């Protein structure tokens, strides 16, 4: 059964992913879940620097479930890129990175860092406290939400445009090399054709001479 879906221009083999923050960065659950069966793995939040999260206790059992206030503990973008992305690339699944920060600048630092990484999508965590607005979540004020999403889209577009320009540059260089090789091969073929024409003319001349000699001998 074909379960492919297209989300924001990215094709998933199926629409199944995991909730950010419940699945670590994938490796933690890889012994229990076959990651190859997921359409995408959505990672836990990743910041520009490591976050230690809230002090313990930060998990409490309640009737019918549990409550937690982990505080977005994460290893930071550098370790995430070095350790977690290569691990996820071993699997046939899309990679969605949850981006978090305390300020627009912190979000942008992560977005810019991810521009050179082989990920498929980003999820912007707007539940983070905005230190410039009294620590309320970015998503609680429309103007803050507009500011952060606009800034991220602008940077992401610039990074995408840069990647496109680099790809176009590499494609142009490759095309020039191919055209150069074709020109060399064409010249070599032309040279071979000229040599063949010379040898052909010599062989025809030799054949004509032999025929003339044969005619003369028959007359005698």
Explain the overall architecture.
With 220 residues, the chain is an alpha/beta fold. The chain is elongated. It has a three-stranded parallel β-sheet with strand order 3-6-7. The protein has helices at 77-88, 104-114, 142-219; strands at 5-7, 10-12, 40-46, 59-62, 65-68, 94-99, 121-124, 129-130, 136-137. A hairpin with a 2-residue loop joins strand 4 and strand 5.
State the gist of this model:
The chain has 220 residues and is an alpha/beta fold. The protein has helices at 77-88, 104-114, 142-219; strands at 5-7, 10-12, 40-46, 59-62, 65-68, 94-99, 121-124, 129-130, 136-137. The chain is elongated and about 125 Å long.
What's the tally of helices? 3
Largest sheet: 3 strands, parallel
Order of helices and strands: EEEEEHEHEEEH
The end-to-end distance, rounded to whole angstroms, is: 90 Å
Q: Spans with pLDDT under 50 lasting ≥5 residues?
A: none
Q: What percentage of amino acids are in beta strands?
A: 15-25%
Helix content: 40-55%
Oligomer: single chain
**SS content category:** alpha/beta
- The total count of strands amounts to 9
- What topology, given as strand order, has the largest sheet? 3-6-7
| Rg computed from alpha carbons, rounded to a whole number of angstroms | 33 Å
What does the average pLDDT come to? 84
Q: What is the overall silhouette?
A: elongated
Entry keywords:
single chain; 220 residues; alpha/beta; three-stranded parallel sheet; two-stranded antiparallel ribbon; 46% helix
